[in-house]
Design goal:
222 residues, mainly alpha, Arc Repressor Mutant, subunit A, Four Helix Bundle (Hemerythrin (Met), subunit A), three-stranded antiparallel sheet, 10 helices, 4% strand, elongated, transcription, GntR family transcriptional regulator, transcription regulation
Length: 222
């Protein structure tokens, strides 16, 4: 990967944070790989201060971990951690989708519908990154439409790891099509204004995602 020159439009640590994050998501930095503050500063041609701040933020987001000896390593998902985070997602998003089913406007329903159309187009073109972005957008819209700001804040705290899992979860034959079908079923229930059905369908969809991710990670760990 070519060296990336940082711009002066925003604080260096924010640019570093995003760049390192994207490299973790893309697999450029491997799970369990050790990162060195001095090497990152040299590579990006900045002082160690913004590197330190970027690392601190990414540790808070869960994408980097600090060991007892202060070694910084890339997050390495464990099956238990995956289960824990998906349990949180199911609990929070089930509430959000029920609220969305009760109060979504026609314009908001159209926004949700548009994400399905975009997903379908991305699947046809085999655009993996766009498929993931549409997946994220669908779930983010449900959170936004729910109107629960506290719930939104909690979900945002899980965003970096959730996005990472979604990237891993597009692997496999017909995975994207399965995800699209799940979203379509959820949206149908929302359109019916059936909060209970929408909640159950979201839980089913997310449980399917969880089981697929566990299978994928289990194979990689063998």
């Amino acid at each position: 990967m070519n060296k990336k020159t940082l711009q002066k439009a925003e604080p260096y640590y924010l640019q570093l944070q995003q760049t390192i994050k994207e490299r973790i998501w893309s697999g450029f930095y491997k799970p369990g790989e050790r990162l060195y503050e001095a090497q990152l500063a040299k590579h990006f041609k900045v002082s160690r201060s913004p590197v330190r701040e970027a690392i601190r933020t990414l540790i808070n987001e869960g994408l980097l971990t600090m060991g007892s000896n202060s070694q910084i390593t890339v997050y390495e998902p464990s099956l238990q951690d995956v289960r824990d985070i998906y349990e949180c997602r199911i609990a929070l998003e089930s509430i959000a989708v029920a609220l969305t089913a009760e109060q979504a406007t026609d314009e908001q329903l159209e926004e949700l519908e548009e994400t399905l159309r975009e997903t379908q187009e991305a699947i046809k073109k085999e655009e993996k990154e766009r498929i993931v972005e549409c997946n994220v957008r669908f779930h983010e819209l449900i959170i936004e439409i729910s109107g629960n700001l506290r719930l939104k804040k909690i979900v945002e705290d899980l965003h970096s790891l959730t996005y990472y899992y979604r990237l891993l979860n597009t692997k496999g034959v017909q995975r994207a099509t399965t995800i699209l079908k799940g979203h379509s079923d959820i949206l149908d229930a929302i359109k019916e204004k059936n909060a209970e059905k929408a909640s159950k369908r979201l839980e089913k969809h997310t449980q399917e995602d969880l089981q697929n991710l566990i299978r994928s990670l289990s194979i990689e760990m063998i």
